[in-house]
Amino acid sequence: MEVVAARGSLRAWVPRGLLQLDRWDGQQASGDGLVAVELAWMDGRLLAPRVLSDAEPRPHSLALPRFADPHVHLDKAFTWSEAPNFTGTYDGALAANLQEHRFRTKEGVLERGDRALRLACSHGLRALRSHIDSVGPGAAASWSALLELRSRWSHAIDLQLVALAPLDYWSSAEGLALAQEVGANGGLLGGVLVPPFRAVDVRRQVHVLLDLVEKVGCGIDLHIDEAGIQPAAGLNQLLAVLDQRPCSIPITCSHCSSLGLASRDQQRRIAERLAQHQVAVVALPLTNGWLLGRQGDQTPVLKPLAPIRTLQRAGVTVAVGADNVVDPWFPVGDLDPLSLMASALPLTQLAPWERLGLAPFTTAAAAAMNLSWTGLLHNGAPADLLVLEATSWSEALCRPKRRVLVAGRWWSARSR
Ligand SMILES: [Zn+2]
């Protein structure tokens, strides 16, 4: 890491909703919901933000807390060229993924994962939760590589790892052994709960999984209802089990796409039950928008997507993640949170100048990941900033020049 001062300051616009002042004197935000402030830091921590007076020059930068992405797949990132899915379907993606997994090596995951983390850090991410294909020929190599990368990047990125396995795997002796290993490594258990399935089998498997995480002491993050059929079929089974035996362990439901196809009443009722059980939701509009809702050669106008607003209104923590990056499930991406926000804009209609439009990419993402810092800028918060050459959200989402501050030090390509 290059030698730089451990203290510094800058003047920038920051979102009103991410600013926590010791005292708020009724300063007005701009139409973009931005407030002009001076941010200073020392020894890796922010000092109290100071709102600029109207007499002071307006800043030329926009500062945001470094971002958290609650759902990626670093083990398969950048595998599109060796395992393309030209059909663009879910089944095609799965087949290509399984083929790639057969020949996956630790060296390959290390090289691609390192590239992904370097991009993520330089683009302003501070935390990522990555699912890992954890059953089959490439599983051991993937885990070994990602544990190494987690350690290699720990000074700059908080990397959470989730063991992605078929749901019934957790009922087997091998599943128990894997769960213990994952728990010992501070990971989470994942699974796939997508129709069609037999409800009675799924409920039993969910029971076993809940027992298992309580025993091992790690969180759960499920791929659930990533489908365009049988709206909320998986969520209904999960909630039926949670009604019988509440779980003390944090649960995240990723995707929840088909819930968006349920009636408004059904969406609202399920959202309320998710809130009651404190289940967080991660919406993944890019991969869903690409894979789901295909209708042959017709242009689909109805896309399965988690009903973010309904979930938020019910009190559910809802985050948005990138999901797949240049792999069989989605052919583009470069782990840039600004790019994700811009791409999600037409799919989700989440406006970053509104508190609930910005939260899924910032504070709610941190909450879904149970990070110690939610991303609010306040006295004593980590000096972790993404600073953009922009003075509005419109400019910010056009990928302007940026600088990244990591624990009070400017990040450079040479930083490690
Ligand atoms: Zn995923």
Task: Sketch the major β-sheet.
Answer: 8 strands, parallel
CATH H-level homologous superfamily name of the largest domain: Metal-dependent hydrolases
Question: If you consult CATH, what is the topology of the largest domain?
Answer: TIM Barrel
Which molecules are bound in this entry? zinc ion
The number of domains: 2
CATH architecture of the largest domain: Alpha-Beta Barrel
Which residues form runs of ≥5 with pLDDT under 50? none
User: How much helicity do the residues have?
Assistant: 25-40%
Cα-atom radius of gyration: 21 Å
For the record, what CATH class of the largest domain applies? Alpha Beta
Per the principal axes of the C-alpha atoms, what is the gross shape?
globular
Average pLDDT figure = 95
Explain what the structure shows.
With 416 residues, the chain is of the alpha/beta class. It has two domains: 7-66 and 374-410, Urease, subunit C, domain 1 (Roll), CATH 2.30.40.10; 67-350, TIM Barrel (Alpha-Beta Barrel). The chain contains 13 helices and 16 strands. The chain has helices at 90-102, 106-123, 139-152, 173-184, 199-216, 233-244, 264-276, 285-291, 308-313, 337-348, 355-358, 363-368, 393-396, and strands spanning 7-15, 34-42, 45-46, 50-51, 62-65, 67-72, 125-133, 158-164, 188-193, 220-224, 251-255, 279-283, 318-320, 385-388, 402-406, 409-410. The strands form three sheets. The chain has an eight-stranded parallel β-sheet. Strands 1, 2, 3 and 4 form a four-stranded antiparallel β-sheet that branches. A four-stranded antiparallel β-sheet has the order 5-14-15-16, with helices on one face. Strand 15 and strand 16 form a beta hairpin. Helix 5 packs across helix 6 (233-244). The radius of gyration is 21 Å and the shape is globular. The N and C termini lie close together (6 Å). The mean pLDDT is 95. The site of zinc ion (ZN) has 6 residues, from loops.
